[in-house]
Structure formats: structure tokens, C-alpha cells
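User: Please fill in residues for this 118-position structure.
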């Protein structure tokens, strides 16, 4: 991506909420944003309980995929921009706690809905 890319410019200083961050599309999107749009302020990733794994477990495993290897070698501090939000896109209000909902309302400037519907 060129340094004056419209995409890079759009995401500069944005705080993003991504649903479906653990799916194929979500992982590709998350890695690409972190690698190419270094000036993103923060990324929240909405995750739910699935297959007997907590959102925390799933979030920790997310960055073990090979698709993140280039990013890890380029910027070992990339995780400082990524935050887990416990929730479920199929639930009312995304299944968010009151505290998490307030954080997202106050901070998020862009939502990318990549969650699959089971």
C-alpha cells in the first residue's frame, strides 16, 4: 500500500470495532489493517464463547496463525493496539456489558461487521 493510500488515510487515528475477528475474513482483515495502517489508534475485536473456549482463550489463540507472522516480525508491539471485547453479534446489543457498551460508544469511530451468522 502506498504511503498516501486513501485506505491508510481513512483509517488514520480511527478506533475500529471488528465483529467476526476470529473467522477467516476477520483474521485477514485484522492482519492487513495492523500491517498496512500503522496509524490506526485502536482495534476492538468482538468475540464470544465458542466450542467450549472463552473469548479470552480464542483471542490469545488468534495471533498464533501463520497469517500474523509477517506482522510479528515487522512490529512486535502490534498487540498494544488490539483489545478484546466480550460479546456476541447475534445477541441484543451485541451481548455487551454496560461498561463495554459505554466504552465502544465513546471511542469507536468505525465498525467493520465481518461476523458470520451460524
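Assistant: Residues filled in for all 118 positions:
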Amino acid at each position: 500500500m502506498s504511503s498516501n493510500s486513501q485506505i491508510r488515510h481513512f483509517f488514520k487515528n480511527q478506533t475500529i470495532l471488528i465483529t467476526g475477528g476470529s473467522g477467516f475474513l476477520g483474521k485477514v482483515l485484522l492482519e492487513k489493517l495492523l500491517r498496512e495502517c500503522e496509524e490506526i489508534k485502536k482495534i476492538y475485536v468482538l468475540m464470544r464463547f465458542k466450542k467450549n473456549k472463552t473469548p479470552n482463550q480464542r483471542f490469545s489463540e488468534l495471533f498464533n496463525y501463520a497469517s500474523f507472522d509477517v506482522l510479528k516480525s515487522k512490529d512486535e508491539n502490534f498487540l498494544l493496539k488490539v483489545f478484546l471485547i466480550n460479546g456476541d453479534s447475534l445477541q441484543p446489543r451485541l451481548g455487551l456489558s454496560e461498561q463495554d457498551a459505554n466504552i465502544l460508544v465513546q471511542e469507536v469511530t468505525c465498525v467493520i461487521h465481518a461476523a458470520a451468522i451460524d
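For context: The chain has one domain: 6-113.
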